[in-house]
Structures are given as structure tokens and as C-alpha cells.
Amino acid sequence: MYRISRSIFFAFDAEKVHYFAMNLLRWACKIGILRRLLQKIYEPKNTVPTKVFGLSFSNPIGLGAGFDKNAQYLEALSVLGFGFVEIGTVTPLPQTGNEKPRLFRLPKDKALINRMGFNNEGAQTIAHTLSKWRTQNPSSSLIIGGNIGKNKSSPNEDAWKDYLTCFETLYDQVDYFVVNVSSPNTPGLRALQEKDSLLSIFSALHQSRTQQSKWKPILLKIAPDLSKEQVDEILVLSSDIHLDGIIVSNTTIGRDRLVTDKKIVEKIGAGGLSGLPLQERSSELIKYIHTQTQGQLPIIGSGGVFTGKDAVEKLQAGANLVQVWTGFIYEGPSIVRKINRWIHH
Questions:
Q1: Per the confidence metrics, is the pTM higher than 0.70?
Q2: How many domains does the structure of the chain reveal?
Q3: What is the set of active-site residues?
Q4: Residue-range definition of the domain harbouring residue 249
Q5: Which of 113, 232, 316, 344 could form a disulfide with 271, with the two C-beta atoms 3.0–4.6 Å apart?
Q6: In 3D, which of 174, 186, 175, 126 has the Cα closest to residue 150?
Q7: HSE-up (13 A, CA, CB side) for residue 268
């Protein structure tokens, strides 16, 4: 069924279709009978809750940041069975992002290239949307992560202020935070993965956290393009910056071993590549970090997860939870149910 829909969706602009499909799903979830029907079809059965960094996830499969940037589709995503959804990336001020088109499919590679550029409605508006959702869904078990970044116009030396603003604005509305310093689509952002920048960002966040009534985990999302030395430096820093977990990994700027015609890829231009080409690198990185930290640092595995087998590969490499994104686009709304069925069979 989804294969037919997908072939129709793939005939149109990727970003426009994304909003069309999600708005349709959101509308369907507002009608009681349709909502119950969708839940019956897509909700995973016999799942075992997963406890990580003090939170209980109804199942280990989540949706990565960038899909529901403004927290507008939480109801629909919860009906599809996601154990957690990461909203954002959120910046202090609203941003329109980069010029369109900025999202491209590479069907032959089961991949996407995006250069969205942190388009979002800004921390204040998103906090308000989340607050409203929480009020309307007090019994929801959906865990919500807040992926935070800096505005394009903010200089790197002041980046910590942007992260702190988002952190404090969203603090009461999300269950955990992710510091995104690894997107390739904001100029200079990846330089914030260096030691001094991480120290200034995380110490500001940790300081603020100690003054809150409730403690919330702070994670770091890293690029798959880091060298072993850079990864080691982050791991050495992890206790100094009070890191509660790590997301492995963001999109890659690499274009190795793609099946898609080179001319097409060159015409698309800059952006982060996600999907199947990232699968192997992401799993290797998870395994390396898991080994280096002796399993003491919780990991969310992300990159090339399409099937239950792919998710199990991430979990066996050392991930505690798994995120999908590109896989959701290619596999469709039953992805969470299928993966959970494979994990628990």
C-alpha cells in the first residue's frame, strides 16, 4: 500500500510532500474513529519499555530531529507508535532556513540530501506549542527531546548564549536535550565540536540545569565525519561537560560509493547526506564509542535504519535507543511497528 503512495509522493517536491502528508495524517488523527483505526494498524504490540538516562521509553524506536521541527505533529507521530520524538532543531529566533529547493531524494541509494538550515519558528513559539500539547495530552507516554542550535547570524564565540536561551525556554516542555553542533548546513557550526566550544556551551547548560527544580538529560549529537582523535577528545571531555548521552550520528558531507549518477549529485550540491550510505559508518562509530566508554555513556543510534535488522545492528553495536528519519520516508508509517516486531520476535 505505502509503495503505491510513495511512488506518487516521490513525483513531487520532497519538502512540499512532507508537509502535505503530515498535515493529512494530523487531520486524520483529529477524527476519533480514524485515529483509533490508525492506532490499531500502526501501534507496535508487546513492546518492552526501555529505561535510559532516567527516562522510561515505551519502546526504543524514535524519530530524529528535523522531521517535526516545530512540534506540530506529535499527536500523529504518537499514533504511529514512536517511543520518542525529537523536535527541532530549535533556535532562539525564528529562521526561514536556506533557499529552496533544499531537500532531495536519491532513491537508488535509499538516501536524502538536505540543506534545510535550521528553519523553525523559534524557541518561544515552539515552547508555547509544546505547552499546549502537554495540557491536551496529560497521559501521553511519548518522550519528547528538544534538539537545540544557534541562529545563523550568531557568531560562534557567542553560540553558548543561543544554546542557553533555547535550553531555558524549552526546559519545562521537553524530557531531554540534544546539543546540535554537527549539522553541515549552518556555516561554521561544526567548528563548535572542538573542545573549548563544547566546554563553554555545556558548562552554561549544566549551570542552568542545577538551578532547575527537575533534572533533565543533556546529549550531544556528533557528525559521522569526525576523526578518531576528535571522537576521543569528546569522550575524554564527557565527564567534564556532564554529558548524559550521545547521538551517533548526524548527516555526512561525504558522497562516497553512491549509485546515483555523479552529475545528479553534483547538481544537487551541498547538504547533509542521510540514509543507507550512512548505515555502516554510524554502526562502526557506535561500536567504537560503546567500547571506549565500556558501555557507560548511553547512545542513541541513528543513520540508515530501515528495517528491524538494521535497528538490531545498532543495538548490538552498543546503542540503547534507535532513531529513524530517512527510513521513515522510504518505508512509511508502519516502520515502528515492523522494527519492534523484529526486535521482540
A1: yes
A2: 1
A3: 183
A4: 2-344
A5: 113
A6: 186
A7: 21
Q: Are 101 and 12 in contact (CB under 8 A)?
A: no
What distance in Å separates the CA atoms of residue 165 and residue 298, rounded to the nearest whole number? 25
Question: In whole numbers, what is the pLDDT of the chain averaged over residues?
Answer: 97
Structure-block grid coordinates of residue 25: 495524517
Query: Which residue in this structure is represented by grid cell 551541498?
Result: 270
Confidence of residue 344 (pLDDT cuts 50, 70, 90): confident
Q: What residues have CB less than 8 Å from 29, skipping those under 6 apart?
A: 35, 38, 75, 76, 79
Instruction: Say how many C-beta atoms besides its own lie within 10 A of residue 207's C-beta.
Output: 11
Cell numbers for 159, please give them. Answer: 553560540
pLDDT value of residue 166: 98
Mean pLDDT, residues 126-150? 97
CATH of the domain at 276: 3.20.20.70
pLDDT tops 90 at residue 1: no
Separation CA 276–CA 218 (nearest Å): 28
Burial class (CB in 10 A: 0-12, 13-18, 19+), 33: exposed
